[in-house]
Amino acid sequence: MKRIITKWQLLLGMHHFGAYLALFILAGVTIFLFTQLMQTIIHQKKVVAVPNLIGKPIEEALEILAPMKLGLQKINERYDKKFAPGTIIQQLPSAGLTVREGKNIRVILSRGGEIIFAPNLSNQSLRSAEVTLRRVGLALGEISQSYSITVEKGKIIRQSPLAGTAVGKESLVNLVLSLGSPPAGMLLMPDFLNKDISEAEHWAEENSLKIKQDEDISSTLSKGTILKQIPSPDTVINKGSEIKFVVSGQIKEVLKKLYWLHYEISQADEEKNIRIFLEDNNGERKIYEKRHSPGTKIDLPLAVEGNAKIKIFSDDILVEERLLE
To answer: Which of 39, 244, 291, 317 could form a disulfide with 230 if both were Cys (CB 3.0 to 4.6 A apart)?
Structure first.
């Protein structure tokens, strides 16, 4: 059966077509007018030359850009020892290019030189020290030699900067190597740290040396324990020189108990930074911190008040808690 389209249906279809056409034309006009408006707004903005922001702190860069009606956007940071932290090391667009007002200048900021903590090279061979320094991003500096009664020949006695010092990447570390025991007639300072002052007094008397002694009454170590010595171990001592010591004093000794703390680092471990804390009636405080090689034995005399507890940390990890009873 053939479909018969009436006059009214034809008129209705034409009406719908006209409505769609009108909407299409209206949309086109709207888009055209919007585009023209945006072009007008954009072209009303001035064209300005991008200033050079390299090496400037971000606050100064903002002051430069504000009158030019330009914005600033930080997109990244990276280490660069040539620029101070917080200064601009790269910008997009580059200086001299032209942009319109309202544009954001994207920048990368310097984090300064990369910071590395100097490793402890004591008692290492020169070859081992070179490998260690290269691994952490530092370089070998000047090498000198000195006699030693504490470090065997060919091993490192001292370093500069000291272990744990914050330095920039690729910094030089100077070393002093041991020549072994000194020749006859040369007197070197022993290491008296954590030993009783009587031992140092006996040595000084045998070598005709004077001793100056100060007390630290805040120390938790037993009375007479050497906390500091001047000069340092392996320093050449002349006859008649004065040796200075700071020793542990004593407060309310009748209330204190004496203990001997012994701790040994496992042979299987690598070099460790050992920290020891004591907690007693006077509260908790650090009583010891030093880097040690595997197998090192630590012996400390302690004077404590009341019930006491020891905490031992190896590279910031608690490895042992011990009650002193």
So the answer is: 244
